[in-house]
Amino acid sequence: MRKEKKKIIGAFLGTIVEYYDYSLYGFSAGIIAVKFFPELEKIQSLMYVFGIYAISYLSKPLGSLIFSFIGDFYGRLISLRITIIGIAIPTFTIGILPDFNSIGVTAAYILIICRFMQGFFVGGEYDGAAIYVIEHLGKKYHYTASAITRASGVIGLLLGIAVTNLFNSWLFPNWAWRIPFILSLPLAVLTIYCRKFLTETPDFSNSIQQKIEINRLASFIKHNSLTLLLAILLAGGFGITYQLSIIFMKQYLPIVMPATSTIISSFSVFIVFIFGIAMPIAGFLADKLGEMIVVKISLLLTLTASGLLGIAIYYQLMNLALISTIILAISIAPFNALAHGIIIKAFSVNERYRGISLGHTIGSMLMSGTAAYISLYFMKEYKIMLFPIIYIGFSAIIAFFVIYKFSKKREII
Fold first, then answer.
1. Range with the lowest mean pLDDT among 146-155, 157-166, 319-328?
2. In whole angstroms, what is the distance from residue 353 CA to residue 339 CA?
3. Beta-strand (E) ranges in 85-179?
4. Percentage of residues in the chain with pLDDT exceeding 70?
5. Nearest to residue 73, comparing CAs of 188, 207, 222, 223?
6. By the 8 A CB rule, do 381 and 234 touch?
7. Contact of 76 with 205, CB cutoff 8 Å
8. Which terminus of the chain is less hemmed in, N or C, by CB atoms within 10 Å?
9. Which letter does DSSP use for residue 368 in this model?
10. Domains along the chain?
11. Checking phi first, is residue 283 left (phi over 0); if not, alpha (psi -120 to 50) or beta?
12. Rounded Cα–Cα distance for residues 10 and 146 (Å)
């Protein structure tokens, strides 16, 4: 039992560090905009920052192609051991990167390379960890395993937003924003040590013993094209709800409701915390009641919270805005918590790493990775200040119908 706990902890720790590293850029968007694009006005500089943020999603599918191939052909462990150090190195580099005032536009180019490399290695990390935990915990705790893996990433988000707020406060000198990025390297070393206790999953070991034939990429895509499309839409849909409701909200609320500026740093931590608590609850309920009941309630709450937030912003009702944002964090949690558990059922053991990883990363690239940039574009060019809220509701509807389609597809099978 102790060995099993060490295996799960090793997988979870990697997810925590991954989310910590990857979220630092989003949570530091304000200071990065000032340091690397000081000559632009606020919304335009944030557009550049989130444009670079989106670039990392272009490299995710490339990373998923390589690491999912390794995961399906040679085992989940090899991928998990490589990806964590690959994520940490570019994160550390951002921490020591000279800003615009030191090296001019070259700083932005290096920033782009760092985000591209982060995305490349992230493309194989989280999906591999989710598969590893779900395969170890088995059918009884299927959605709970999916939810807890996702929730462990919230610990990384909380750590990221906490250290970002701390080192950007008046207590520390101007350069201290770099410290959270620099800390990524020792965290990666700790994860590598913990992952030495990992062993291969029972499902993958059984597939090796049975000598199940593994299809090459072209054959895999040909035979799973519809399932892959559904996985892409689900990943993109739940990803948009997460990006806008959890990551982007820290930048969005002060723009549309200036009264929140003084409390947004601490309030954003609370939003992430609530989001993290709601996910395991959603996973537990999905195992007990079924995933469709949970996501139906989730969709209804998401649309209700989005409407209330829109009203609050239009009439500048700060208390209603804060309450609506909390409800939104709770309501989108099931989409994010259950997604991997839903997709994993659609693929066989020797195809699921590629199926989940490609679906997730392509969906992220095409939809969720650009969510903040698209929102800022419509806000700036067309003055549609409620666009992010509309986008959240639309994406939740997409996620719901894809989950419904997956559910009906399993019934036919």
1. 157-166
2. 14
3. none
4. 96
5. 207
6. no
7. no
8. N
9. G
10. 2-412 (1.20.1250.20)
11. alpha
12. 16
In the chain, DSSP finds a helix count (H) and a strand count (E) of: 19, 0
Check: CB of residue 40 under 8 Å from CB of residue 177. no
Q: How many CB atoms lie within 10 A of CB 227?
A: 18
Q: What backbone torsions phi and psi does residue 366 show, to the nearest 5 degrees? A: -80, -30
pLDDT band at 3 (very low <50, low <70, confident <90, very high): low
CB 16 within 8 A of CB 155: yes
Mean pLDDT for the chain overall = 89
pLDDT at 2 over 60: no
pLDDT given for residue 184 in this prediction: 92
Torsion, CA 24, CA 27, CA 30, CA 34, rounded to 10 = 0
**What does each C-alpha distance from 289 to 286, 292, 385 come to in angstroms?**
5, 8, 38
Give the integer Cα–Cα distance in Å for 139 and 363: 26
Q: Is the CA virtual torsion 393, 356, 156, 154 positive or negative? A: positive
Task: Kindly report which listed range (37-41, 103-107, 302-306, 333-337) carries the lowest average pLDDT score.
Answer: 37-41
Give the tokens for residue 354: 């590629």
| Residue 147, amino acid | A
With a cut of 70, say whether residue 211 has pLDDT above it.
no
Tell me the mean pLDDT in the region 350-357.
91
Gyration radius of the chain over CA positions: 20
Helix (H, G, I), strand (E, B) or coil at 38: coil
Query: Phi/psi at 192 (nearest 5 deg)?
Result: -60, -40
Q: What is the pLDDT of residue 411?
A: 65
Average pLDDT of span 144-151: 93
194 CB-near residues (< 8 Å, 6+ apart): 6, 9, 10, 13
- Tell me how far apart the alpha carbons of residues 244 and 305 are, in angstroms, rounded to a whole number: 13
Angle at Cα 329 formed by Cα 161 and Cα 131, nearest 5°?
A: 80
Helices within 28-105 (DSSP H only): 29-36, 42-73, 76-96, 100-103
